[in-house]
Amino acid sequence: MTNETTRNWKPATAMVHGGTLRSQFGETSEAMYLTQGFVYETAEAAEARFKGETQGFIYSRYANPTVDMFEKRMCALEGAEDARATASGMAAVSAALLCSVKAGDHVIAARALFGSCRWVVETLMPKYGIETTLVDGTKMEEWEKAVRPNTKLFFLESPTNPTLEVIDIAAVAKIANSIGARVVVDNVFATPLQQKPLELGAHVVVYSATKHIDGQGRCLGGVILSDKKWIDENLHDYFRHTGPSLSPFNAWTLLKGLETLPIRVKQQTESAGRIAGHLACHPAVGRVIYPGRNDHPQADIIARQMTGGSTLICFELKGGKNAAFRFSNELEIVKISNNLGDAKSLITHPATTTHKNLSDDARAELGIDGGTLRISIGLEDADDLIGDIDRALEKA
Ligand SMILES: Cc1ncc(COP(=O)(O)O)c(C=O)c1O
Asked: Distance (Å, rounded) from C-alpha 9 to C-alpha 240?
């Protein structure tokens, strides 16, 4: 097999060729290695492979050629030394967090987290003796105030789900570095194309590959990226022995997704920018939160830290939950779904779905109320989407 190294390719080139492992057949498209295990010519060869004296695959819970290609292509995009692919985004988040700390350590996390991430921090980690504190991630003084002698890890998502708050990653990393703590960033909403947490000082980046990386609503997946030493020392054994591994079939689907990621994200962001501007002028719409707009509360940080807007828009309907439900039900092209990053435009009512488990106070703190909607813009023609939105707003 030959391994296609990425040299100094630009993202669009690296996403088509990066990490490709060609077999003896010289296939054009990446091969799907649907195999659980691997065979050895001799017992001695098996022994040498297990001892690490020879390179090669052993068992697909440890590593698999198709999964390996996906990990290498993600490294090329993120500028990371190493990666481990997981069966879902939540497997990536929970592995990255749990493998960074031990009982007695303290974790500080931004409170604006996707519901399941917040459950891992607030409910799961304390069960195993890990102390956790949630802060308003946009306020650097809150991160500083929360630091304890045993603080080992900072965790944040930016832009946040669903209100698209943007956290100053470089400033958070500076505080963490000053006390020797590590920073894990969930970069799902930005995508690897619009924000580079490792360049901003973060130590670990995680993705739900289910979202833009697949981008066509087919399979679940996740990935953790960091330096090789951290992955070797912290994730290697965890992956071998607990098995959150990505299936080769899903890895192949995600590899195909990566080939079109740059062009999809560019188009979806362009349409989202237009639609955000349109929504902001509509009398039925209260506030519009969109990272590409000058009135975004963290517009200055976005200008420094992100290279594009977003494929997502958060907005308020003035008529509260009733108006939000009527509007969603009237949409024809945009579908109601809690997913995002898809080729199909999707609308979510966070208060009753993704963030329904939070208390009313916690939701209010995050700025989510009955009229809040999150829309993920897909690959449809933007004029058709605007037509669909206008018609539904009219009827609602
Ligand atoms: C910000 C964020 N992180 C993590 C996840 C979890 O990803 P998955 O559904 O692939 O487990 C999601 C999913 O919605 C998300 O929005």
From this structure: 32
CA–centroid distance, 113 to ligand 1, in Å, is: 10
Residue 300 belongs to some domain of the structure? yes
- Which one of 94, 118, 210, 366 would you pick to mutate in the ligand 1 pocket, going by the greatest count of ligand atoms within 8 A of its CB? 210
Give the C-alpha separation, 180 to 36, whole Å.
Answer: 40
Q: Is the pLDDT of residue 8 over 90?
A: no
**Is there a domain that residue 386 lies in?**
yes
Within a domain: 374: yes
Q: What is the pLDDT of residues 260-274, one digit of tens each?
A: 999 999 999 999 999
- CATH no. for residue 285? 3.90.1150.10
**Ligand 1 center from residue 208 Cα (angstroms):** 5
Between CA 14 and CA 266 the distance in angstroms is 16
In a domain, 193, yes or no: no
Domain count, the chain: 1
Pocket test for ligand 1, best of 93, 157, 158, 211 (most atoms within 8 A of CB): 211
Q: What average pLDDT is seen over the chain? A: 96
| Distance in Å, CA 89 to ligand 1 centroid | 5
Q: Give the residue numbers spanning the domain of 379.
A: 261-395
Q: Are 252 and 2 in contact (CB under 8 A)?
A: no
Residue 2, pLDDT above cutoff 60: no
